[in-house]
Design goal:
This protein is an alpha/beta fold. It folds into 2 domains: 201 residues, Rossmann fold; 157 residues, DNA Methylase, subunit A, domain 2 (DNA Methylase, Chain A, domain 2). The chain is 29% helix and 14% strand. It has 12 helices and 12 strands. Helix 4 runs parallel beside helix 5 and helix 10 runs parallel beside helix 11. The longest helix is centred in the last third of the chain and has 15 residues.
């Protein structure tokens, strides 16, 4: 029987996909965002979903919703909202969302899973957040062996993005197993996946009529082989994925999300002057480098925070911003993964997610070292 896991702040399922590919059963997904939760439901149709504010939950509620007892829960995973910690944002210590990080550890202390794994931005380790992090970790130190926070870059694990994130990990002492920080460096890839490689096969010349979800379905131009492409085209865990979307990829080599953005002539002319690796002076959008890595993709905000759309990188050779499917490729999501029908919510979901490449690497190490399978 697969070890069961609960995913808090699940979003569209970056960590959830990582867990499923690592051999876990998703016993419960929890998120307070109705739109991203619906996207998660499409990709994880057999997983129970619970839309709720995590701060209002208890460990016993989680276990009841997941239909597991304390001994049956292998792990609690999640990446709480990072906006209040991000060095690219306002870094507001009073942002109420910051406390959701503490609530994650409170729920760990109440549900007592065999391990926990939390993820957040690098800024969470800045001095101004030290007290909050100390408070959070103090809730679990009595029962758990807690490793020092460690940083991993998705690029080191096969994704075509320079996305560094901090992980917090601990495991019950009664397990009798040991995991060290060095163990989490063992899954790195020997080669780098460049932007141009990651976007191979996707249409580069987009038509101005490809602005809807329906029109965004396009046929891949090439099919490649190798470790990266196995994760992009296949490796579909049991009971994961939208059957219709998977069938289109298998039968017709068709993918969703190739949705174009209409730019004015003035914007196109401006983009034409931006070299690879440069930045548009007006929009501050960076142009991708074909032989480099994508900078960290931003998420933008939901309606509750002003509905701001994230800056989208400019394609390395075309004078346009990238599509949701191109963003998904750069982040490490497979072609059979479905996103929201709009560009705005697609980029919100992708930008808020853990790269499945790094998440899977971390969780497979945990499975092996704790002998959970």
């Amino acid at each position: 029987m697969a070890p069961k896991i609960i995913d808090l702040y699940s979003g569209i399922g970056g960590l959830g996909l990582s867990a499923a590919r690592s051999g876990f059963e998703l016993a419960l997904s929890v998120d307070n965002d109705p739109i991203l939760s619906k996207v998660h439901e499409v990709n994880f149709p057999r997983c129970p979903h619970f839309q709720s504010d995590v701060s209002n939950l208890t460990g016993s509620t989680l276990l009841a919703k997941a239909r597991v007892n304390g001994n049956g829960l292998a792990g609690l995973i999640g990446g709480s909202p990072c906006q209040g910690f991000s060095r690219a944002g306002k870094r507001d210590k009073s942002d109420v969302r910051n406390l959701l990080f503490v609530h994650f550890f409170r729920l760990v202390s109440e549900a007592l899973p065999r391990f926990f794994l939390a993820e957040n931005v690098q800024g969470i380790l800045d001095t101004q957040n030290k007290e909050l992090v100390t408070t959070a970790l103090s809730l679990v130190r009595q029962n758990y062996e807690v490793l020092d926070p460690f940083e991993l870059n998705a690029a080191d694990f096969g994704a075509a993005t320079n996305r560094k994130r901090v992980f917090f990990f601990g495991y019950l002492r009664e397990n009798g197993k040991e995991i060290s920080l060095a163990d989490f460096q063992t899954g790195t890839w020997k080669s780098t996946t460049t932007v141009e490689l990651a976007l191979s096969g996707l249409p580069q010349k987009l038509k101005g009529t490809w602005t809807t979800d329906k029109a965004g379905w396009r046929t891949l131009r090439t099919k490649r082989k190798g470790k990266f492409w196995s994760k992009i085209y296949s490796e579909v865990p049991t009971d994961i994925g939208d059957p219709a979307t998977i069938k289109k990829l298998v039968d017709d080599w068709s993918v969703s999300g190739c949705i174009a953005t209409r730019h004015s002539e003035t914007v196109v002319e401006r983009f034409e002057t931006v070299p690879e690796g440069g930045t548009d002076a007006v929009s501050r959008m960076p142009r991708l480098e074909r032989n480099g890595l994508c900078p960290t993709l931003r998420a933008g905000t939901g309606k509750d925070k002003g509905s701001y759309q994230a800056l989208r990188p400019i394609h390395f050779s075309e004078h346009r911003v990238i599509t949701p499917r191109e963003a998904a490729r750069l982040q490490g999501f497979p072609d059979w993964f479905r996103f929201h029908k709009t560009k705005w919510h697609s980029f919100r979901g992708i930008g808020n997610s853990v790269s499945p490449f790094v998440g899977e690497a971390v969780l497979k190490i945990i499975v092996r070292k704790l002998e959970l399978s």
